[in-house]
Design goal:
Distance between the termini of chain A: 34 Å
Largest sheet of chain B: none
Oligomer: heterodimer
Radius of gyration of chain B: 43 Å
Strand content of chain A: under 5%
Low-confidence stretches of chain B: none
Number of helices of chain B: 2
Mean pLDDT of chain A: 92
Largest sheet of chain A: none
Shape of chain B: rod-shaped
Largest interface: A-B, 32 and 26 residues
Structural class of chain B: mainly alpha
Shape of chain A: globular
Distance between the termini of chain B: 145 Å
Structural class of chain A: mainly alpha
């Protein structure tokens, strides 16, 4: 992955140049107009966040079962990206909401459950930062708990009354709106992959440094 | 003849008068009772979408670039520390 990193970055850069052109060419939604175009990077950021949650949760399960250092490194790297992509979703949502609903934030099921999921992964990172030795296992349990929340966040709009568009919106999109959306989503997921690889490199270099220090102490 | 004209008027007169539209002014949205300056209108129609879309786009990129910058800074710090430790080890082994 690291050897081919420049190629991946070039491909992603090209995708992120093309994506805005496709978004501009997409037709206006009939009830919301221009502001609905936030959807083309609001939705992909949540998809990237959900994938990062699953990667972190699955790696945490492997870590709890095997104590694999590699799995732990993947879990912590992905957890950090959950917070990054979640922050994009949480900030772009209100910018859409103020025009579409007339309020910056409404405590509806989707927004609130997404905020809770984001806070769970914030607590994971805080635990890793300040929890001291042995906090990895407790943090892994927190990541697993966070992963179990994803289905509730996703289906919250169908289960409860909410202002947020339902999940059927995406599957019923016409080609002219669906193509830019899925193109942006693939670009965001690619960006997630590249950022996880870079964050993993940091984790491995830190492990190397710790090993050198240990060797020096001995 | 006079009787025939009178009869004709009596028969078709009400029908003609019923078909006549009532005299009304043409519909208009233009102000008639008083003029209101546009900046005194309700604020709800004044929020443009374009700055919100641009702000959302900018926020997404700021968060991503901020994270990449933080990642680069942390990686650089670790690399410097590794190089420093390697230098110390090398100078120690020379002695």
């Amino acid at each position: 992955m690291m050897k081919r990193m420049p190629l991946w970055i070039a491909l992603l850069a090209a995708m992120f140049v093309i994506a805005p052109v496709m978004i501009v060419r997409a037709p206006y939604e009939s009830t919301m107009g221009l502001v609905q175009k936030i959807f083309y990077f609001h939705f992909p950021s949540w998809m990237a966040m959900f994938l990062a949650v699953f990667v972190s949760g699955a790696a945490s399960v492997i870590f709890l079962a095997t104590r694999s250092k590699r799995a732990d490194a993947i879990a912590v790297s992905s957890a950090e990206l959950v917070v990054v992509f979640g922050l994009i979703g949480l900030l772009t949502g209100p910018l859409w909401g103020i025009k579409a609903w007339g309020v910056w934030w409404s405590w509806d099921a989707r927004g609130t459950s997404a905020l809770v999921l984001w806070l769970i992964f914030q607590s994971y990172l805080l635990l890793r930062r300040f929890g001291g030795p042995g906090s990895e296992r407790l943090a892994a349990a927190v990541a697993l708990f966070g992963m179990c929340n994803v289905p509730f966040v996703y289906w919250s709009v169908n289960l409860w009354r909410t202002l947020h568009p339902k999940t059927t919106v995406v599957s019923s999109l016409p080609m002219t709106m669906g193509t830019p959306l899925w193109f942006s989503t693939v670009a965001f997921l690619g960006l997630l992959g590249v950022l996880i690889a870079l964050r993993l490199r940091l984790e491995y270099r830190r492990a190397e440094l710790d090993a050198i220090h240990l060797e020096l102490d001995n | 003849m006079r009787r025939f004209l009178l009869l004709t008027l009596l028969v078709i007169g009400p029908a003609i008068s019923a078909q006549q539209p009532p005299a009304q002014p043409p519909p208009t949205t233009a102000a008639q009772d008083g003029f209101v300056p546009i900046d005194q209108l309700a604020k709800k129609e004044e929020m443009p979408a374009a700055p919100l879309v641009m702000a959302a786009y900018a926020v997404a990129w700021l968060v991503i670039f901020g994270y990449v910058w933080s990642l680069w800074r942390r990686l650089h710090k670790v690399e410097v520390e590794i190089a420093d430790v390697a230098r110390r080890v090398a100078s120690g082994s020379k002695r």
